[in-house]
Design brief:
alpha+beta; 6-stranded mixed beta sheet; 3 helices; 9 strands; globular
Length: 180
């Protein structure tokens, strides 16, 4: 579900950037800015990089349904919220290109903040809806996150993505009431 979400957002943003800059070159990749050994990831140089920062779930209470003389516990779908960092990872000589791409990224997700199957048929079959919104952090908080992942400051934005998957409900009988 997380991979499908990031893949969809990456493909969507790639299409928008290709149209906006009149190019056939893929500019967006999913990955880390820094390799696990601390070295620079050269595969993401001069690219817009989508990096997963955090995953958390929304707590939703279980519901109980009475089915005849049996009560069932119903587990609702798992709602996930992920935080992603989108970075214009451009070298100094291409810094202005990075500013253009991060600006286009921000305007793209500002005008396209809700994704569902009706509007975007290419949305993965396991996803019902995605909502994307900017995480408003001050400079200090943003810099702390970037330095914690070992990266240098580049033009970037953090988004919260709410994922609604198409998981079937799970029914578990918990009490059978005898007929009296």
């Amino acid at each position: 579900m997380i991979h499908a979400t990031l893949k969809f957002l990456s493909d969507f943003l790639n299409r928008e950037l290709k149209l906006g800059f009149n190019t056939d070159v893929n500019k967006v990749v999913i990955g880390n800015l820094i390799n696990l050994d601390g070295s620079i990831n050269v595969d993401v140089k001069n690219k817009v990089v989508i990096t997963l920062l955090n995953i958390n779930s929304e707590t939703i209470q279980l519901t109980k349904k009475k089915m005849g003389n049996t009560f069932e516990k119903t587990s609702p779908p798992l709602f996930l919220n992920i935080s992603i960092l989108i970075t214009a990872n451009y070298e100094s000589k291409n810094y202005s290109e990075g500013l253009k791409t991060i600006s286009k990224t921000i305007s793209t997700f500002h005008s396209n903040s809700i994704f569902n199957k009706k509007m975007y048929p290419s949305l993965d079959e396991h996803l019902v809806r995605l909502n994307i919104e900017t995480e408003n952090l001050d400079v200090k908080e943003h810099s702390k996150i970037v330095s914690e992942i070992g990266a240098k400051q580049c033009p970037s934005v953090i988004y919260k993505v709410r994922i609604l998957p198409t998981e079937p409900e799970v029914h578990t009988p918990i009490i059978t009431v005898p007929h009296i």
